[in-house]
């Protein structure tokens, strides 16, 4: 646990919110938010630690946090979903603890109501389907469970941007709220960066696929004329893709690692997949 705490970092955006709270005389509220966010993120981090994920950094944000892990899209989807859910689940015992402390000299009924309000606001906000919020990550994992990696990432990002656009539109009709404006602006920048890095992330996924230890296999029928680059777009997370090539009335099976070898080692980006069929066949 001490190892995890040493990796905690407070994002500059959170320091801005803390400073604003102190200046405006809302230090107790800011302290409550800090505790809630810290516990929320430690829920993610402890789950990742127990599943033996390599945690690089734990960053606290006003609406939650982000645990940076060494992960290239080849870890089991179930494990990542467990890590994502571990954060929101912490809010349940936080609510129960606040309720149990009511009546103590240091915890009044008004403190409890304020704490519960912040606790509910943070968890509900985090469950919005906007990346990198927990809700956005859940949508991303759901897409990865049913679609190839490249399509799933594009679809989940599209959903994220759509809901973010709705949130920004609603904000135009509400009284100006600095914290909300800063948070939504941060989410917009994050989604923009995610869009710019989509090809880089896909390339990292393909590189990690070369040493992927997944055992579950799935077949995909493709034309022999399909370029290798397009065939790789059909690869899925947590599954080994076997390509059934239909060419001239014949069928051949080629494993995904053969395509990856041709793509990275032989630079056959545009070559048709039928070129990978052994001549003897």
UniProtKB/TrEMBL annotation:
Subcellular location: Membrane
GO CC annotation, single: membrane
Membrane topology field: Multi-pass membrane protein
GO molecular-function term, one example from the UniProt record: metallopeptidase activity
Signal peptide: none
This protein's UniProt keywords: Hydrolase, Membrane, Metal-binding, Metalloprotease, Protease, Transmembrane, Transmembrane helix, Zinc
Family: Belongs to the peptidase M50B family.
Cofactors demanded by this protein: Zn(2+)
Positions of the Peptidase M50 domain: 30-102
One matching Pfam family: Peptidase_M50
Transmembrane segments: 12-27, 114-131, 152-172, 178-195
GO process annotations (BP): proteolysis
Protein name: Protease
